[in-house]
TrEMBL record:
Origin species: Leptolyngbya foveolarum
A GO molecular-function descriptor: 4 iron, 4 sulfur cluster binding
Designated name of the protein: Probable dual-specificity RNA methyltransferase RlmN
Domain Radical SAM core: 112-340
Main location: cytoplasm
UniProt xrefs under Pfam families: Radical_SAM, RlmN_N
Superkingdom per UniProt: Bacteria
Family in the record: Belongs to the radical SAM superfamily. RlmN family.
Keyword field: 4Fe-4S, Cytoplasm, Disulfide bond, Iron, Iron-sulfur, Metal-binding, Methyltransferase, rRNA processing, S-adenosyl-L-methionine, Transferase, tRNA processing
Protein purpose: Specifically methylates position 2 of adenine 2503 in 23S rRNA and position 2 of adenine 37 in tRNAs.
SUPFAM superfamilies reported in the protein's UniProt record: Radical SAM enzymes
The EC number(s) this enzyme carries: 2.1.1.192
Extra facts: Reaction proceeds by a ping-pong mechanism involving intermediate methylation of a conserved cysteine residue.
C-alpha cells in the first residue's frame, strides 16, 4: 500500500489495449460492431444489452448469432465482480467490488421512498490525506477508469432492482484529480443510463484551477466543495493540501464556477467537536460566504479509529446550524446513513477491505 501523500502527479491507469464496451455511446458501439463486420443496428442492440440488461459478456447477447458471439466473447464488457455486500439496518447497502486488476473499491446504495442514491468512488484510495477521513488514511493506488465508475451504478441498480435516481461522487477518492474520467462517466450516466445531470453531485476538496476547468465542461451537475473550516489555519490543519490553496482562492474559484455555470455550489462542513463548531467559527464562515448563492451542508463527524476527533452533540449541531441561519446562510445537516457498516462519509477505507472476508462472490 502506498503511503498517503498529497501529490498531484498524473495517476497510473489500467493497462488495456482497448477500453471495454461499458462507457461507450451508441455511436461508438455502432462503429465497433461495424468494424467487426456486423450491420449498424447491432450497435443499438449491444447498447441496450449493456446498459439495460447488464450483460457481463457479449456471449450473453442472444440476439447475436452464436458464431459471432463466439468470435468476440472474450472482448471485455468492463463489469466488476461483487466481492462483498453488507446491508445496514437502515437499508443502506455497501458493496466491495473487485476490478479487473484485482483491486477493490467501494460503492454504497442509499434507498429512500422516492430515491435510490449511489455513492460512487472515483479513485482507488485517495492521495489527499485529509486527517479525519478513513480513505485518506488508507493510501492511494490509481484513478478509476470511466467504465469502472459506471459499473458501480449498474451494480447497485441491479441489486436493488430499482432505477438509480441520484449519484454522489462521495465515495473513495478526489474526483477532480480524475476529472477526465469523471466527466466522461457523468455524460455516459446521463446519456446511456438516463440519469439526469441535475441528480448528480460531484464533491471535491478543491484542487487549484480544477473547479474553473470543470465549469468549462458545461455540465448541469451540482458541485459540492468540502470546506470544513472557516479559516485557512484550521483548514490546513485538517487538509494537508490546503496549504498550497488559500481558502480565499478556493472561494473565488467557486464564485467563478457559479458565474460560469449558473449553478449553485454547496459547501460541506464536517463538524468536529470543540474544533470547528464554536460560535466564532459560525460567524467567520458566514462572513467568508457573504453574498454568495450557496448552501452549507453540515456533516457531523463519523468517527474513524486512527484519530481522536469527536462527534459533537446533537444540541451543539443544532446551535451551530441556528448560528449560521441567523447570519443568513442556507444550511442543512446531513446525518450519514450506513454508519453501522462503515459505509458512511469518510468511512470507506482500503485497508479494511483487505481484511474483509469475501462473503459472496460470483
Ligand atoms: N474527496 C472528495 C469526495 C469524497 S469524500 C471530498 O473530499 O469532497 C466525501 C465527503 O465525506 C467529503 O465532504 C468529506 O470531507 C466527508 N468526510 C470524510 N471523512 C469524514 C468523516 N470521518 N466524517 C464525516 N464526513 C467525512
Ligand atoms: Fe480524499 Fe475526500 Fe477523504 Fe480528503 S475527504 S482524503 S479528499 S476522500
Amino acid at each position: 500500500m502506498v503511503a498517503p501523500t498529497a501529490t498531484l502527479s498524473p495517476s497510473p491507469t489500467v493497462q488495456l489495449t482497448e477500453l471495454p464496451l461499458l462507457g461507450r455511446s451508441v455511436e461508438s458501439l455502432t462503429e465497433w460492431v461495424q468494424a467487426k463486420g456486423q450491420p449498424a443496428y447491432r450497435g443499438k442492440q449491444l447498447h441496450q444489452w449493456i446498459y439495460q440488461k447488464g450483460i457481463r459478456s457479449i456471449d450473453e447477447v442472444t440476439v447475436f448469432s452464436k458464431k459471432w458471439r463466439t468470435e468476440v466473447k472474450d472482448f471485455p464488457v468492463g463489469r466488476s465482480h461483487l466481492h462483498f455486500r453488507s446491508e445496514s439496518p437502515d437499508g443502506t447497502i455497501k458493496y466491495l467490488l473487485k476490478l479487473t486488476d484485482g483491486h477493490i473499491i467501494e460503492a454504497v446504495g442509499i434507498p429512500s421512498d422516492k430515491r435510490l442514491t449511489v455513492c460512487v468512488s472515483s479513485q482507488i484510495g485517495c492521495p489527499m490525506g485529509c486527517d479525519f477521513c478513513a480513505t485518506g488514511k488508507g493510501g492511494y493506488i490509481r484513478n478509476l477508469e470511466t467504465y469502472e465508475i459506471i459499473d458501480q451504478v449498474l451494480t447497485v441498480q441491479e441489486d436493488f432492482q430499482r432505477r438509480v435516481s441520484n449519484i454522489v461522487f462521495m465515495g473513495m477518492g478526489e474526483p477532480l484529480l480524475n476529472t477526465k474520467n469523471v466527466v466522461a462517466a457523468v455524460r455516459s450516466l446521463n446519456q446511456d443510463i438516463g440519469i439526469g445531470q441535475r441528480m448528480i453531485t460531484v464533491s471535491t476538496v478543491g484542487i487549484p484551477g480544477h473547479i474553473r476547468r470543470l465549469a468549462e465542461e458545461n455540465l448541469q451537475i451540482t458541485l459540492a466543495v468540502s470546506l470544513h473550516a472557516s479559516n485557512q489555519t484550521l483548514r490546513t490543519q485538517l487538509i494537508p493540501s490546503a496549504e498550497k490553496y488559500p481558502l480565499s482562492e478556493l472561494i473565488d474559484e467557486c464564485r467563478d464556477y457559479v458565474k460560469a455555470t449558473g449553478r449553485r455550489v454547496s459547501f460541506e462542513y464536517v463538524v468536529l467537536a470543540d474544533l470547528n463548531d464554536q460560535p466564532e467559527h459560525a460567524a467567520e464562515l458566514a462572513s467568508e460566504l457573504r453574498g454568495f448563492q450557496s448552501h452549507v451542508n453540515l456533516i457531523p463527524y463519523n468517527p474513524i479509529t486512527e484519530v481522536d476527533y469527536k462527534r459533537p452533540s446533537r444540541q451543539r449541531i443544532e446551535d451551530f446550524t441556528q448560528q449560521l441561519k441567523d447570519k443568513g446562510i442556507a444550511v442543512s445537516v446531513r446525518y450519514s446513513r450506513g454508519l453501522e457498516k462503515d459505509a458512511a462519509c469518510g468511512q470507506l477505507r482500503a485497508s479494511q477491505i483487505a481484511e474483509t472476508p469475501p462473503k459472496s462472490e460470483h
